Amino acid sequence: MKEIKQIKTAGPLDFPAAVKGLAEPVVFKGLVDDWGLVRAAQQSDQAADEYLCSYYNDTPVTISVCEPDAQGRVFYDEHCSGLNFTTHRGRLDGVLEEIRRCREDRLPAVHYMGSTTVDLVLPGFRDENDLPFADADPSIRIWIGNRARISAHYDIPDNIACVAVGRRRFTLFPPDQLKNLYIGPLDLTPAGQSISLVDFHDPDFERFPRFREALSHGQVAEMGPGDAIFIPSMWWHHVEGLDALNVLVNYWWRDVPAFLGIPLDALNHALLSIRDLPREQREVWRDVFDHYVFGDTDDAAAHIPENARGVLSPITVESARRLRALLIRNLNR
After folding, report:
1. What is the pLDDT of residue 10?
2. How distant, in Å, are the alpha carbons of 28, 67, 145, 163 from that of 39?
3. What is the percent of the chain where pLDDT is above 90?
4. DSSP secondary-structure letter at 192?
5. Do 151 and 75 form a contact (C-beta atoms < 8 A)?
6. Four-point Cα dihedral 131, 135, 139, 145, nearest 10
7. Is the sign of the CA dihedral 210, 212, 216, 221 positive or negative?
8. In 10 A of CB 89, how many CB atoms?
9. pLDDT at 333
10. 3-state percent breakdown (helix, strand, coil) of the chain, nearest 5
11. For residue 11, which of 132, 125, 114, 108 has the smallest C-alpha distance?
12. What is the pLDDT of residues 178-206, one digit of tens each?
């Protein structure tokens, strides 16, 4: 695998303009070196703990716990019929305490607080720990854990992930490696997104032979406090926390109007209505989708008077509302 391209940053960057048009991941070395949490982490894990707790407002958070025999891998049980971790509601300072308690264990249990809205639990934190976003309204999340391994998955939004405490290893694959990553169930997932079933620490090439091909397209980066990585939409990423305490803050955003739908909804609907049709009918619908969705959409409607194109015109707030109402009526029949 090749190293992800790195750019040394000399000052703040304006997002999302700084990554507009980038089709591959980029590591911005030292992008958030001036964050208060990064400076605390450079002193010690205890200083980072105290810094986080100074902002915590007692809001309950969701905590995942994985037993030591999982070796840090947050995953399924052996039959893929359940998960290998439990979740409970608790306190942010409580998960920090559990991480601290098992830091000297040779094979610690995983204690993990994932994807938690920063402003919900740490009001004021962004006064000293933030990126400028001029033309987007990102969802800003914080992730806290010890040596956890998060299987390769994709996110629909673009992503800037900022390492604030500890070291992390990111292993990325372009979207076209979907078939080579051996993705698990779509409707039972550890955290909402489908994941690769391959254990990156011990890949079973007999069971997953095409994973060798995926590795030839992979990109990797090991990052420390102050570094950030841009992960383009739909890129598969495997994430490992390498130290006893790891904290990440990420920014998700989509460069599309808010009224557009989520593509995953269309996939689920296609599974319901197209996937199990006879082959010849599926091929017909492939042509229909190519014509109206994936092909030249201007050409598909060019012969229709402009005032009569309806949903074949660019989607607007009003036409999106009408389409949603139509879908709801049809699905509720």
Report:
1. 76
2. 17, 32, 19, 12
3. 93
4. S
5. yes
6. -30
7. positive
8. 8
9. 81
10. 30, 25, 40
11. 132
12. 999 999 999 999 998 999 999 999 999 99
Say what the pLDDT of residue 135 is.
83
Q: Which long-range contacts link 301-304 to residues 24+ away (Cβ below 8 Å)? A: none
Spatial contact of 144 and 53, defined as CB atoms under 8 Å apart: no
CA distances from 53 to 66, 93, 94, 322 (A): 23, 6, 10, 47
Q: What angle do CA 323, 324, 330 make, to 5 degrees?
A: 90
Query: Which secondary-structure segment (H or E) carries 297?
Result: helix 297-301
Q: Which two tokens stand for residue 26?
A: 């980029």
For the chain, the average pLDDT equals 96
Task: Report yes or no on whether pTM surpasses 0.85.
Answer: yes
Closest CA to 51 of 287, 307, 285, 245: 245
Q: What is the pLDDT of residues 33-55, one digit of tens each?
A: 999 999 999 999 999 999 999 99
CA–CA dist 221, 45 (Å, integer): 22
Tell me the β-bridge partners of 61.
90
Residues in the chain: 333
- 14 class by beta-carbon count within 10 Å (0-12 exposed, 13-18 middle, 19+ buried): exposed
Tokens 């994932």: give the residue: 114
